[in-house]
Structure formats: C-alpha cells, structure tokens
Specification:
CATH class of the largest domain: Mainly Alpha
Largest sheet: 4 strands, antiparallel
Structural class: alpha+beta
Helix content: 40-55%
Distance between the termini: 39 Å
CATH architecture of the largest domain: Orthogonal Bundle
Strand order of the largest sheet: 1-4-3-2
Number of helices: 9
Shape: elongated
Radius of gyration: 20 Å
CATH topology of the largest domain: Arc Repressor Mutant, subunit A
Order of helices and strands: HEEEHHEHHHHHEEH
Number of strands: 6
Amino acid sequence: MLIKNKILDEIRAGNISLIFRRWKRAGVKAGGTQMTQRGVLGIDSVAVVTEKQITEKDAKAAGFASRKHLLADLYDRDEDIYRIGVHWVGEDPRKALRSNDKLSANEIDEIIEKLKKLDQNCQRGNWTQLYLQMIHDQPNTHAQILAESIGLSNLTFKPWVRKLKALGLTESLRPGYRLSPRGLTVLAAMRRK
C-alpha cells in the first residue's frame, strides 16, 4: 500500500487514523504492520464498505475536509472500497540495523549464512554477493540500469534488493542504492571467505 509522505506524517502525529483504498482484494491484514518510507504502520482493522457507509466522521479521520472530498479522491474503478484503521508503530527498524557495522564474528557468520540461504532458495543461484558488489561499485545508479546490466527487468530486480535491505545491508537513494555501513562490513567479510 503506497501512502504519501504527507499522510504518513499526519498518521504519525495522530491526526489520521483511517485510510481508504479501492482494491480487488485486501492489500493488508488487520493486526499486521506495513513498512513505509517513513516508518512502520500498524493495521488495526480492514473492512469492505460501500460509498453510502462512509461517514463525515470517517472522512475527517482520513484527513479529508468532507465525505465528498474523500469520495472524489478514490479512484473510480470497479473495485471494492476498503476502510483501513491505522496507527503509527515507530521508526523503520532497518535504520538502526544498517548503521550497526560493529559486528562480532558470530553476527557476520549469521548474516552470511542468511545470504547463503537466499542464494540456495533461488533459481538464479548465487546472487547476493553479486548484488552487494554491484551496489557497492555503482552507488546512486538507477535500479533500471543495474537491472539491465545483469539482464533483468526492474520489476524482477527490485524485490531481490529489498531482501538485502531487510537485512540492513542496503539503503535506498534517489536514484538507486548504496551499501549501508553494515553492508560494507558484510561484503568485506564475504570477499575474505
């Protein structure tokens, strides 16, 4: 679920507690969380509603001046309307993770073992060190260029980089990526092995 920074800031401030989306099927689950570019959202509730069920109170809780404004903002397509209750959970835990480059030998071994499992569970073979090295060598390079350099589409490439990001090894830039301090430490250890 893509959410504009302005809306995320209002959720964080406690001014917005509802989001409305048109979807074919729910993109989030009640009780779950959603990682966003600003931090982590908690998903309190997810319900399919009709336009008639949306109230003025709902509109205000979603940050709109009126129900009419909320409805005008929803895409006009033949999909269900979802009312999603949200709250701010906190900062992106990957931020603290990626800045931690003071890793013990055991921690480095555990991370490398996780990378080996990612390699083994992929038909592509050993990709993790290749991606880390490529990002190291070409920081701030648009993802499309990186993807094409290894014969992949951008849509195929990006989810794999997200796996590295989840381990705190990369950071997103505009454009492209760079290795985090943690990623630099792990790549150096992988080169030595």
